[in-house]
Specification:
Elements lengths: L1 H25 L13 E2 L8 E7 L13 E7 L1 H10 L7 E14 L2 E17 L11 E7 L9 E2 L4 H4 L17 H6 L3
Antiparallel strand pairs: 1-7, 2-3, 3-4, 4-5, 5-6
Length: 190
């Protein structure tokens, strides 16, 4: 009986020692995962990340033709958020995911307003100055889904600088529109 107990205990300790490196990486490390061709893999579990804010530019407030007439919900990976809390800067490896949602309704039992409808698009931005040295501030932009009804891609190539980064010059910190994210603004006011 003693031998079986020792063998079982050894087996448990071996499983724990093999699992520890995996467990330590599960909560952090390199959040952005890239395939062999350099495409970003769709971040897993981003809806469980830190929700930093949402914006909406509805058509009826923009002459019926808003450039982005949906809610933009922004999530930041938890490890980068913790570093941002300490430094007030986006760390290398930071990943922000933008999930766009249509304006579904303007009336509800609570009153008139703008209420979310269906998921429309899914985008990500990654800060990696080594991988993207030509990109301003090291930020690269990716699109996983552009329209409602479309299934998100599992991988996405980085956009050319001119397609996203030029508009993002209006971002208050490193081309990120931090001025619209109250969670980040409270940590580091503009």
């Amino acid at each position: 009986m003693k031998g079986k107990t020792c063998a079982a205990l050894f087996g448990v300790l071996l499983m724990i020692s093999v699992s520890m490196p995996l467990l330590s990486r599960a909560g952090g490390g390199d959040v952005a995962k890239f395939d062999e061709q350099g495409a970003l893999l769709l971040p897993e579990g981003y809806r469980g990340w830190i929700f930093v804010g949402s914006t909406v530019t509805p058509n009826d407030m923009n002459g019926g033709n808003a450039a982005f007439p949906e809610f933009h919900n922004i999530y930041m990976d938890p490890e980068s958020f913790r570093k941002y809390e300490k430094t007030g800067r986006f760390p290398e490896g930071a990943v922000l995911v933008k999930e766009t949602v249509s304006v579904g309704s303007k009336q509800a039992s609570s009153g008139n307003g703008y209420f979310m409808g269906k998921f429309v698009g899914l985008f990500a931005v990654v800060k990696d100055s080594k991988r993207f040295p030509e990109e301003p501030e090291g930020w690269a932009f990716f699109t996983f889904k552009e329209s409602a009804g479309e299934t998100p891609k599992t991988r996405a190539e980085a956009h050319p600088t001119a397609s996203c980064s030029v508009c993002h010059q209006g971002g208050s910190q490193e081309r990120i529109f931090k001025q619209y994210y109250p969670v980040l603004n409270e940590l580091k006011p503009d």
